[in-house]
Amino acid sequence: PVLYSYFRSSCSWRVRIALALKGISYDQVPVNLLKDGGEQFSAEFKAINPMQQVPALKIDGITLSQSLAIIHYLEDTHPNPRLLPQDPKKRAQVRMIADHIVSGIQPLQNLSILNQMGEKKMEWAQNCITSGFKALEQILQHTAGRYCVGDEVSMADLCLVPQVFNAESRYKVDMGPYPTITRINKALLELEAFKASHPSRQPDTPAELRA
């Protein structure tokens, strides 16, 4: 497999976690979203992903984009360890939390949106994240065990950690009001798959940001 990724892309990070958890070795091709106006806009990369976004994964003779579609494929083809619970209610809760982050928070504070916000980009990002986290904190109080849904790592957790990283490191969001999110995030960052896939440990991580 070949993963087209950017070290700080939260969508790419989700996929890196899934690959690490499932023990799938892969080659990584960095796509710098800032260099020369963004390498994702090159003709070469547009041929790989017409949406001009990372991640994209070449695997088993196909090319997939969209992080959750990639993770679902990995789940279908490498079912262990399981990232979707067998219980239908828990499975629905995992998908709900993943969608909450992937659709309801992350796209609103994505690079393409922030570039249109001008001087208000930081305020905009903070507002998008805090409104999403208020709802997410409430949801997790009903679903969480050690992790987002019970005590097993799931697709929801793969979405949570990169979003918390964005909130804390990039947009300086006060995490005080979100104790459940903070507790789960801390527990997940102790796991090797989350450490190995961290933005500070990627081939394209700038020297000054390396762990």
UniProtKB/TrEMBL annotation:
Q: Which pathway does the database say it acts in? A: Amino-acid degradation; L-phenylalanine degradation; acetoacetate and fumarate from L-phenylalanine: step 5/6
Name its cellular compartments: Cytoplasm
A GO cellular component entry from the record: mitochondrion
Gene3D superfamilies linked: 1.20.1050.10, Glutaredoxin
Please write the reaction equations for the catalytic activity of this protein: RX + glutathione = an S-substituted glutathione + a halide anion + H(+); 4-maleylacetoacetate = 4-fumarylacetoacetate
Please give a single GO biological process term from the UniProt record: L-tyrosine catabolic process
The protein's matches in InterPro entries, at most eight in alphabetical order, are given as: Glutathione-S-Trfase_C-like, Glutathione-S-Trfase_C_sf, Glutathione_S-Trfase, Glutathione_S-Trfase_N, GST_C, GST_Zeta, GST_Zeta_C, GST_Zeta_N
Q: What is a single molecular function from GO for this protein? A: maleylacetoacetate isomerase activity
Q: Where is the GST N-terminal domain?
A: 1-82
The EC number(s) attached to this protein equal: 2.5.1.18, 5.2.1.2
GST C-terminal domain: residues covered: 87-207
- What superkingdom heads the lineage? Eukaryota
Question: What keywords sit in the KW lines?
Answer: Cytoplasm, Isomerase, Phenylalanine catabolism, Transferase, Tyrosine catabolism
* Required cofactor names: glutathione
Family per record: Belongs to the GST superfamily. Zeta family.
**Know the name of this protein?**
Maleylacetoacetate isomerase
Q: Could you tell me which species this protein originates from?
A: Indicator maculatus
